[in-house]
Amino acid sequence: MMRPNATRILGRRAFLGQASMGLGSLGLAQLLRPDLFGAEPGAKGYPNRQAKIKRVIFLCMAGGPAHLELFDYKPELAKRDGEPMPESFTKNQQIAQLQGQELRVLGPQHPFKHYGKSGQHMVELLPHIGGIADDICIVRSMTTEQINHDTAHTFMNTGFRIPGRPSMGSWITYGLGSESEDLPGFVVLTSVGGAQDQPIASRQWAAGFLPSKYQGVKFNSTGDPVNYVRNPAGVDRQRQGDLIDTISELNGIQRSMVDDPEIETRIAQYELAFRMQMSVPELVDFSSEPQNVREMYGTDGGDGSYASNCLLARRLAERGVRFIHLYHRGWDHHGSIKSGIETSCKYVDQATAALVTDLKQRGLFKDTLVVFCGEFGRTPMSQGDRSTAGRDHHIKGFSMWMAGGPIKGGASYGNTDDLGYNAVEDVVHVHDLHATLLDLFGIDHTTLTYRFQGRDFRLTDIGGRVLKPILV
Amino acid sequence: MSYRHNVRFAWSRSARFSDNRRLKPDQLKNHMRSHPIALVLAILACSLPLGAADVRFNRDIRPIFSDNCFACHGPDRNARQADLRLDRREVALARGAISPGDTVTSKLVERIRNENDVLRMPPVYSGKTLTEEQKDLLVKWIEQGAEYEPHWAYIPPIRPEAPDGPAGIDFLVEKLLSERGLEPAAETDRRTLARRLSFDLAGLPPTPESVEVFEGDGRPDALERAVDQFLASDHFGERMAVHWLDLVRYADTVGFHGDVAVNVYPYRDYVIRSFNENKPFDEFTREQLGGDLIEGASLEQKVASAYNRLGRMTNEGGSQAKEYLAKYASDRARTASTVWLASTMGCAECHDHKFDPFLASDFYSLQAFFADIEEEGVFAGYGDWGSKMLVPSREARDEIARIDARIARLTEQGTDQFPPTSENLAVFAKELRGALGKWRVLAPNAVRNDCADPDIVDCDKFEIVSEKDGSVSPRFGQESRPGKLAQVVEGDLGSARVTSMLIEMLLSEDCEDYFLGEIEVRWLRPGQPSRRVSIDTVIPDWNDPSGQLQGLIDGNHHTGWTGNPNEEGVRRAVVVFEQAIDAIEGDKLQVTTVYDQIFGLHGISYRQRLSITGEDSFEFPLDGPAAKLLWTDNWNRDQRAVMERLFVRRTGGNPHWPEIRDLQRDKKRVLDHADETLIAKSVEPRTIRVLPRGNWMDDSGEIVEPRAPSFLEQIPRGGGRLDRLDLANWIVDKNNPLTARVFVNRLWKLFFGEGISKVLDDLGSQGEPPVNPDLLDWLAVEFMESGWDVKHIVRTMLLTETYRRSSDPSPELRAADPDNRLHGRQTAARLDAEFIRDNALAVSGLLNPKVGGPSSKPYQPAGHYKELNFPKREYRPDVDADQYRRGLYTHWQRTYLHPSMKAFDAPSREECAANRPQSNTPLQSLVLLNDPSFVEAAKALAVRILESDAATDLERIDLAFRRAFSRRATERERDVLLAFLGGQEVHYGENRSEASKLLSTGLSPVPSEIDTAELAAWTSVSRALLNKHEFVMKY
Question: Looking at chain A, which residue has its C-alpha nearest residue B873?
Fold first, then answer.
């Protein structure tokens, strides 16, 4: 990985040293205080227990994948296909687009099969993920509290329905800092395909009330990979470097004139910005990826696809990024779920499996947690005409899987009822997922707090249970 | 003495509310004992070392209790353990937790010191532990008698002894300093002061000239004059609005899901205007909360009521209306309680407040004040967000009044002045013929699909065909119809003047309905770049129920013109150009029309014909039998009847009908330029219940009516339900202990860097007791007694010595008060996001100082809205003077705020934000380095420098410094820049094409007489200055 011109940095450093010398009272502590998102220790002395992972790759299947079509086969559902949904399930329950409509059962649209030595039961449409079946632990008893996309994502990411709370990636970089010197600790990637692409608000990776340096940075698949990371037209790297040197020298002079410790931070941020201008384009340059890797993911990279984002996620993981959050906006199958789910699976199956395999091959799997999860699931009831039936949003029971780190491979956890409506066994709440995630990072979720409006907020609010049974 | 009593009592000094609450003598005595004046002298910041003095409840004990104990032994009855409340003295005593003066029998002492993990308080599972120092404080407090004090913020402020005017502030600040034996910093220099004033009061840098004037002004009242000048400028309102808009979460989009745009900028203008006109804060409050309820509400007051409509709204399919109505209601209560009361009542949505005495029912009772606001839980479509009104500008209102007066004069004769006699019919037919004959069909000689839009699917699978009558329509084969299509028609203009274009939608089998979303007109001339024709207005041929023809030119193809062709088989609209086109032979008109599907599934349909005219006055063409009759005056009886009907319909029996017709069109044109804004409209109030655990599906909670929080003074009910105006009056009642404190505390932060109580959104138990309570109370009382005069209180703050102090302290002062909580110096602060942009625009001379109006769209990275949908949208940066408007006018997309604004900590405005953090991140560096707005500003500054009289490089550097920093460069700075300049000149001299590329950034032209390489080199120098830390700072 290329580094910026060493003499330039050295020159600046030497200069800064001089500038600071006359300022007796200013110690190293102030020089090291900057709000960098570059490598730095955690803000509060975490981890406070043994850490089992160093990073997360969160594969958010945005739109709400149908658990009943992917991971949760219900023979009873198939049997009752087309029959009225028993009212005992649906009475007084939240409902989204099916409000006021006749509710009928929709059986699974595709056959399931058993994969791997463990015999994980998944739809036939996921042959590649089937290939890593023995590495993943399927949770079939997820629940959440919000039934519309926007608020459900907010809840899944922050544990709250009200905006303004930090996303989980922000919490983790707040607690642990970042391992990367020139990349943000929390990176977001997006892709589309498979169903109508529901919007995603930037709030989903916002730092909320935490300092803004902990916000997720979204990488763009087109244009500048990070906003403003590209030099202005007519300015090459040498010129930009000269400019930054000049800025830092002027700031150094200013530092000797006024007592403003923020100046040192500013100087450091310009250096980091300059390094990012190099490291980010290098990061998104896939030319060094060998052919077999490209074939494994099914992409040459750089096309903004989910597959490309998976490959990029691995590159980010290698570079010490703590929280890598992918959104694939393509699972909102209100209609034509039979063909829709097939398409969506094609978008993600191969690359997801490739990512896990690739992490394993590079020795990253043991300390990387991979999470595959939507913001909610979909109803056992059908939506729309029978010929183009889909499924509506559903929050009382859905599926996800995790892999990597100490997660038990080839295992499953929790169950829904016979019709896949309610999670009934080992029910997992969003707060439990968060508690587990923090636990794996070596953070007791009840202690990682931040005071806002007089209250010590946690990612897990007042809940959260570490899912010990799914850990080795 | 109960907490409730104490507070209630203190509140009861209100003359207005005192009718049924008389003070008892013993209460009075108690009150005097716990009087704030007596307390405050002893109260110092917790962060400062404690003296040996008495332990005080508010200062020392309440924070410990609140943080560690109240969650289980406080106001929340559902969470309460062992029936013990530590927030009420009588309960704590009765339960044996505290025995005043006796630490041995006080169970509290035993429990906090217990070595046993199971018995020690706070319990292990709470994650809380007391420090030894905290334990000692509790013990000492009990030894001293365990006296409680009512929470400071709930006692109405009383003016402490201090001189009048600004000297009062200085007196109270210096009192604390001298108690610490601290010497304040000296007064700063005039240059720094000029910059400080300018950024604080205008949000803009001073001009070099104004700094010189100020530096040379030896008059004793120089500062006063400067302050008054700033207060009189319209920029004051803009500066203050930035803060207020954060609080009320003003934005240009709805915030949920598709985050669709909504027009409410007239409210922003109202805020700016209110600060500029120095509207008293109580009136400002009343107008926002209940402007629509004021009897005979003015346009302005109705606009102000848009405050109530600024929250997030959804149109997401599948949303449950009841759920979202609950969300909106909570949002309103949270916001109002933070904006005016700095109280975290939102915590009481699910349970009684854990730290402050707010009950869950208080929270829902506050919601009930707003239950009358007309709204939908789930709004439909993209453009309808409920109650709204047109807001013409003042000029427009004058113009409309003039037109109305003229129409009134023309019609005062009544409707029988122009009967359909044969003679009149002939006159009418002639006039109509003349107007009708002036349309010429724009024969299409090229038609195509525009397939550039990625939304358009299968663009190449169908074609557009022209008919003999000049109409065009898409031809669909077996393929299903697309959902969207952009069609381009070109036709010869010939040598002609063109003022307007007629669009006709013709009925056909393929076109039973249509939705035209967007129209763009370009004027083509061979060998020249095409010119976009600005559209003034779009006029429908009858009172169009869709009413959204402006939607054709708003850049959003989901708003537009829809309908079924009328009984004549045709619907028509006239597109009026802002300026007439003077075409010559060979010129063409290119018209792109974007059609969208209506309501979902059918795919698009249309048959469109275009015509043009060069007249300023026109008639819509006729169809049906009347069309032919017009060309003769020899009608049979039936024909005459047809003509008479047409006559009556078009003339209204008035001989001045052509003029009236034109006047009505003029009026419509003026109204088209008036924007709509959301407003509050009062309807039958919805039922508001306490929602157990905040669960909107749970209808078991009690129904609540509007009322004030139960522990505070209630609002007398004059009969009938309390409304938003009652709430507003209660908020700005002089005996409300919170409102004035909240406002002046936030003002203090704006001008002194940190609030006197630094938690600006929480003056409750978990907030910070004010460092200088006397000062806070003095300001609060001064503010109220001045008649809530905002400019007065700002002026008073700024004319102090405290304000003028240097931000560069002595080492002793810094060591003794590192965070400057005693204000022995000024606090250096980073400028807010908006003002950083403004600074660059002002220094470079690009700034468009226009005050008010619609939001503007500065350059923004392409694809920034890529993750948005419903509808998908394209950001079109402004290409005129609007590009250079101040930051506060930037289009505020809640879910995707402009990245430069976000980088510098501007809030998303999804929720009320009382305090902006001041981060310092590499993303900020990238913005200042590479955002085209800042690169262009550097270029413009370079042009300014090179076009000036400054001849030498040194003079130029000095000039640039004076523009950017109001000072000359030091020798070292000059050396650094000269060396840098030299390198840049060499580089761009050798790489002129690179220089041209750099100078191509931004819309602003580059004067051809300046050498490209030199300008590029100076652009680099300017970039260095705009990136300098000093540039984003106020010292």
Answer: A199
